[in-house]
Amino acid sequence: MVSIGVAIPCRTRSPQHLPASARVATAVMPSPPLVVIVVGPTGSGKSRLAIDLAEALGGEVVNADALQMHEQLPICTARVREEEMRGVRHHLVGCVKYGEYFDVRSFRERAGTIVRECIANGRSVVVVGGTNYYTQALVSDSLLDVSGTNDANDEETNFDIDCDASSVGRRPAKNVMRCEADSTAYERLTKVDPDSANRLHPNDTRRVRRYLEIYDTTGRLPSETFRQKRTMRKFESQFDLLGCKTVFVALKTAPEVLDRVIRQRVEKMIEYGLVDELETFAQNFGVDSAENSRGDVRQAIGYAEWKSYLRARVAEGRGGISDEKLAEMRMEAIKTSIQNTSRLARHQQTRLRTFATRYQWPIHFVDVTQALTAYAEKSDTFVTLWHDSVFESARNICAGAANGSTGSEHRTTDESPVDRTWIVRKCECCDKTLRGENEWNAHVEGRRHRRALASARKRQRGEMGNKHPSFAENSA
Questions:
Q1: How far apart are CA 273 and CA 320, in angstroms?
Q2: pLDDT tens-digit series, residues 290-316
Q3: Which of 34, 110, 212, 293 is the most buried (most CB within 10 A)?
């Protein structure tokens, strides 16, 4: 998925602006070609680190953010600006024309050609982007069936990955059953495949129906199907066969710090002209994308939140809406954009932990919390902290890979695997079934539950339907 906001601005435009110790470190490292995959949550500084590493390695950058490849909406899709590239060559940035179909297979073909050409010429490549599925599909065949062109193969593999970000994915599953009611669909899945049912929320109707579709189509339990796919998903880079090394560098940070950075980035987007960009796009191409369209730039988080405003704004010349109401809708769009982007960032971090722990992919985590805290506080120490704690860590990881390290010496594992089986609890007071700690805590702290609990206590005391005892005594 795409990030919202602009890239963390490069406050130093050349090595001469860095301290003396930092300038020495930015010299090109003598090494065999590397394919460095920079991943992480939106707003964590992936674009900046990719440029830093490309400079140090004497390499080039390949964009793997699906929506930043589109020509339109450069601000909304957080496309890196030319002045921030520092002369480093970038590929697949703003290369997709409006209406052109471009999917993960198209990306794999074009990006793969670029990477192989760079390696053949002895240059390293830094692949960077928020669309983790694209970067993973580029590097490893285990996530994408490259033997044919049947989209149904992509559906199963991508669907399993998409389970790690339940509220982020916007692509609807194909051939999903519609004849069965939502409640009965989950009940049937519980009987057919209890293991899968325990891993899904009853309200996640899209995946409930998809699991049942797999069972009805193949005759196999979805839990068995996905368990087999997980055992096959061991990391093996297609580029290592070309004589280079592939290394994953993942940025991680404290969620509360990332929330502050995301808020500032959205505000900076407004300053850069986001609203004018969205209005111009809506006037030229329409507010809404075509039904069931795939790969449309309007799927970007940071666009959908503005649709109500854009509909009113585009129609303003035909009688439209008051300036006060427009201003209110504008503020709501900004607020929702910040909230949804923060939610996306958490899903991205969870997905990376899953690949590092459950599938044992060689992902090296670099903590950017300290540097981003300084950035959010507009501290002058940001540049030094970024260089010392982020860039140097990533550079050392790359140096270890280039020197023949297997990665185990430098690989920093994140948290232990999380058991994704839902804890089911029944609220007898509300006659409601809750799954997961977050849902339970939100329910018991909610106003509706407190009211139901108060009513239940009154019924126990026999006070329902009667005046409060104090009123009864006064009236007597």
A1: 22
A2: 554 566 888 788 898 999 999 888 865
A3: 34
